[in-house]
Design a protein that fits this description.
- It is a single chain.
- With about 220 residues, the protein is mainly α.
- The protein folds into 2 domains: about 60 residues, no CATH class; about 120 residues, Cytochrome Bc1 Complex, Chain D, domain 2 (Orthogonal Bundle), CATH 1.10.760.10.
- It contains 8 helices and no strands.
- The longest helix is centred in the first third of the chain and has 40 residues.
- The radius of gyration is 38 Å and the shape is elongated.
- The termini are far apart.
- The mean pLDDT is about 85.
- It binds heme C.
- The site of heme C has 24 residues, from α5 and α6.
- Its cofactor is heme c.
């Protein structure tokens, strides 16, 4: 019983290479120092197995190259961040800000898709807009600030775009401005109006503000 246990212990300590009484077989030494030296050598020969591609690339790039890579990385991060910020603020917009380039850019795209067909890519309306159609309605009006658009406040412009012109016209008048409710989100309509207003001369935007003040006061 005791002998067997001793045997097992001997076997264990021999496997661990710790029993000085057990003769070491050549080539299978577990001398920690030698192993360490072996490792160090390994590192010198083929550097950092796992990080090798990066390490080698880093060395090939040199300090300037590494700086450039880091700079590009930071640049990309900032760009992505601002894109998401713009998108977030566009989606939650509740007003038309003609001085907000991101909102105006979105509005431009949406205008081309939904409004340009009738109001013209340059917002000039259809020729003959200042007359009436024989049928009773009117051609698409200019949205570029010519005409009388400044009489409408931002909220009016929004409502006409969302619900169409008919609800705001006498029942006997046929208004051909379609409503975009269900086709455009509110924030998209605000973006289109931001783009539209960015095309107005400053003087027209001032006139619109004055008209709104007069209506309120
Ligand atoms: C199918 C053609 C058509 C499309 C598409 C269209 N409109 Fe119109 N729009 C009209 C017509 C026609 C009028 C004039 C209605 C009237 O006064 O009888 C008008 C009038 C307006 C007015 C009122 C202008 C004023 O001075 O009274 C606004 C604002 C307007 N449209 C904005 C838009 C916007 C923004 C879009 C795109 C989201 C758009 N429209 C798309 C035909 C269109």
């Amino acid at each position: 019983m005791t002998e067997r246990r001793f045997d097992r212990q001997r076997r264990l300590s021999r496997m661990a290479g710790m029993n000085p009484r057990v003769p070491r077989e050549p080539g299978r030494t577990l001398d920690p120092e030698r192993r360490l030296r072996g490792l160090v050598q390994l590192e010198d020969d083929e550097p950092a197995e796992a990080g090798a591609p990066l390490g080698r690339l880093g060395r090939r790039l040199g300090p300037k190259g590494r700086f450039l890579v880091v700079a590009v990385f930071i640049g990309v991060a900032i760009t992505m961040g601002s894109i998401y910020w713009d998108r977030w603020s566009n989606e939650s917009a509740t007003a038309a800000d003609h001085a907000n380039p991101a909102q105006v850019a979105l509005g431009h795209t949406l205008y081309d898709q939904h409004c340009a067909f009738c109001h013209g890519p340059d917002l000039a309306g259809k020729p003959g807009w200042d007359g009436d159609y024989p049928s009773g309605g009117r051609p698409p009006l200019p949205l570029d600030g010519t005409g009388a658009i400044a009489r409408l406040g931002d909220r009016d412009l929004f409502d006409v775009t969302k619900f169409g012109g008919q609800p705001f016209s006498p029942p006997t008048y046929k208004n051909d401005m379609p409503g975009f409710e269900g086709r455009l989100a509110d924030a998209d309509i605000w973006a289109i109006l931001a783009f539209v207003k960015s095309r107005w001369p400053e003087e027209v935007r001032e006139r619109q503000k004055e008209a709104a003040k007069e209506r309120e006061g």
